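Budget justification note: compute hours in this period were largely spent on complex prediction jobs such as the one shown. Inputs:
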Amino acid sequence: MSQAVKPPSLWTNMRELPANVWHSLFRNPLPTDDLQRSSTSFTNFFLHIHPVKVNKNTLRPIYTMGLGLMSFFLFLILVVTGVLLMFYYVPSTTQAYDRMLDLRGTVAFGIFLRNMHRWSAHGMVGVVVLHMCRVFFTGSYKKPREFNWVIGVLLFLLTLFSSFTGYLLPWDQLAFWAITVGTSIAAYAPVVGKDIQFLMLGDATVGQEALLRFYVLHVAVLPVIVTLLVAIHFWRIRKDGGLSRPEETATPVAVSVKAVELSKNKTYGLQGFVRGPFTKIGNTPDNSVFAWPNLLIAELFVFILTLAAILTLSMMFNAPLEEPVNVMHPPNPAKAPWYFLGLQEMVSYSAFWGGVGIPTIFVLLLLGTPYLDRRTAGVGKWFARERLLANTIFMTFLIVNVVFVIIGTFFRGPNWEFVSPWK
Amino acid sequence: MKMAGNPKFAHNKDAAGEPGVNRRRMLAWFSGFGLFGSAILSAFSNLVFIKPRATYGQPQRFNIGKPEEFPSGTRMALDTRRVCVVREGDKVAAISTTCTHLGCIVSVADTGFACPCHGSRYDQDGNVTGGPAPKALPWYKVSLAPNGEIEIDKDTEVEPGSYLNV
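Corresponding output:
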């Protein structure tokens, strides 16, 4: 051990304590030049998910509309408000509804948090669908992003299922009959349908066991799976070289180096091991900008926009709460949440095809999309002419479903009879 | 350790003449299969775990009272039990009031049964006469309990039109 360096005195330690703690937390000062911008992104856990530099195309609001980020932020709002609501909620058939009334009457911000949770859930379903449309219409599911599209479709289904499992928890009429209908639809699946229904309900009918099961799925199982898949989804975006973009028209300035050719003395680009050509510092393409601050400001903007929208909605509209469960008197008509009304409308024609057959075909088509449509043309452009066929098919499915949702919402009355909303 | 007595492995040597590499590979495969198999089995055991062996909701088999309480011509819907008791003369039957479409409770109407939610309609015997219902309302087994009360077993479906003589 060297005795040459004298350890600093206690006084010096105390004097430098705040600065030392600060520097142990943040490795870099606020960046002023490009090198510091790079190392700030590179050495921070939360910023590390971002590349050091992003293509300008990624930041075009009209290209992504921030929909993916919006879904993520809505998920964050749902997690935070959901955890807070867990402090007061009891998954018991005798208590759940009273706890809802408690939120309205005695808990500080109770109704507000419930509103935020409910509207974020509805918003997330909508935004996730829109995000999927964006990715489809810009052809962004194509190589090398095929598997990320598959994860995205799974996340879409999990979003729907999370919302559905949350629906039962207030234990009001809306909840009870929506779950009765929903699990009955599941029972139409061939061979395993009845078993799936029994596993979901934990009993022959919707009751205490079902409430507990849906609660566990809603607050533990599904959020964990969603979190894991979201992490993979984001990680893959990095590994696939960022968001999709149109083919560069000008010759890229990036120096193309095969990974195997790198020698030990080679300097690696700070952009890291993204697929495709490596980018060397000082030799970067002109159409990329530093993630700090450009990308971060864009993200902050989307976050504030999302939060503001949810806060405004939650102040203006209260989440619905109907009569407490009455097993004897189903409401007429008993309607599912709006995003399942297309399904319910189809079910009113044929229980198997509307509830199981067509949705299964639709999901399989969605999952298979990148493996069925493998032409590389038209990536990164909205409604590219090269993708006319694929876009038309997708648009048709979309419009048909939207029409069914509208019919189910406004044109169906008691006994599911056709009614006119204008009279 | 040598794989004694196993000619297949005894004669297999890699380029360096080292015996036992294939044995190692085989062991690796076995371990792999073992681990993978255990994972699959434990996944199934989860399914077994979440499938309840006992349920605490409504009993599926219950007594509804003496036959005298249901005079001839009775069509009484026991909503909590989700069953409609039918008596014609000396014959008693129990028809489900759970809609075969999506599980709503059907109400008893003059013409039979009608679902208030999705518009399915059934005749007096539970046969579908309209709406999206895919099949007729099931009939449940009715018997006389030792204490003389009518017992309905919702776990056992019987042919429509089969009555119990009391």
